[in-house]
Amino acid sequence: MELSNLSNSTRRTAHFLITLLTALAGGELFMLLNLPIPWLLGPMLATLIGANLAKQYYQWPGQVRNTGMIIVGYTIGLSLTGSAMGEMARQLPSMLLMTVLLLLFCAGIALIVSKVSGNNYKTILLGSIPGGLTQMLVLAEESEDINLTVVTVIQVIRLMMIILCVPLLIFSPLFGNSSTAGDAISLTTANPATWNGLFPNILYFAVACTFCGILGQKIKFPTAYLLGPAIITSMLQISGLHGPRLPSLLLNAAQLMIGVYVGLLLDPRKLNNKVLTLTLAVGSSIVLIGGSYGLSSIFAYLESVSGATAMLSLAPGGMDQMSLIAHEVGADLPTVAGYQLFRTFFMFFAIPPLFKLIFRERKTQSSTAG
Question: Can you tell me which residues the record assigns to a coiled coil (predicted)?
Fold first, then answer.
């Protein structure tokens, strides 16, 4: 029986299951190949290919994506511990200076890439800002005149370049480290999260995070389903309620929920000058890593920290990955986590309203000039 002959509800369920199976296959393939963030990029790529071959059979409700974002927001809120906040407060001026310099550097790269590629500056800027793949894609989706495919391509390439290149750089003789990663205890396995440890506290956090995500969306809070849960989780933890860490299965599921949604939004046909755009994305990522290294040299001099600590603190990658590398090379883990966390929250709170304000002003000026 063809799917077109089924009822609407049955057909939607069938399309959802086809999409889910495709995403699971993509995630498993990325796992087998030991590729970075497999449960985000694997489902994203698999559904992208599947939907472009047979778009009529693929469907992914927005509510599922929102659930994934609530889970990610909760995990971000868990990172805002007392020790992390203390470290952030002590080095706040330095953190702010380095973060602003890194953003200005990214803005300069985006200006050059937009001129060469022919894409609008707004799109390239969102692709270049190291604010986290999920956050930037959500902001891109909420903004006008944005080519989501270009933003995703640049962000994914940047993220993969960071994950692949920064460890090689840190373990190189440039930082005086040898490849001793195998001798270290992984931060993610030293104290694994268990299902039994979730209850009953996870129920309180689940209700609070869901409520704040929905409320934030209604009042048009930027990236509401991420920020709402992150904020309430931090507040509940500070008030004394323990937030349990989530098992890897839930975190992988959240990445899949988001990855599938993004994969179905992408349309390669909207990617103008494919070879040029990909080449510029790789080139700009290399320049960004070089700029981060330059800023880390300044940071190491100002704060009297090791080169590895400075580089990992400023590397435009994920906090989890950078903290793990810091653990393995003996860098100052609280400093690395503090800087990465500060940049994450700075991107969350400052970039969305600032981005909208700047381009609203430019649009107003253009209308007035016209």
Answer: none
Contact 14, 3 (CB under 8 A): yes
* Residue whose structure tokens are 């400052």: 350
Is the pTM higher than 0.90? Answer: no
Quote the distance between the C-alpha of residue 281 and its chain's center: 17
Tokens representing 186 are 């992984």
For residues 222 and 216, the answer to whether their CB atoms sit within 8 Å is no
pLDDT band at 182 (very low <50, low <70, confident <90, very high): very low
DSSP 15-44: HHHHHHHHHHHHHHHHHHTT-SSHHHHHHH
* Best CA proximity match to 19, nearest among 344, 189, 263, 347: 263
In this structure, what DSSP letter does residue 200 have? Answer: T
The CA-based angle 274-280-281, given to 5 degrees, is 90
Do residues 286 and 158 make contact, with C-beta atoms less than 8 angstroms apart?
no
Whole-number mean pLDDT of the chain?
A: 79
Tokens of 350: 């400052």
Whole-angstrom distance, CA of residue 198 vs CA of residue 326: 28
Please tell me the distance from the alpha carbon of residue 344 to that of residue 338, in angstroms, as a whole number: 10
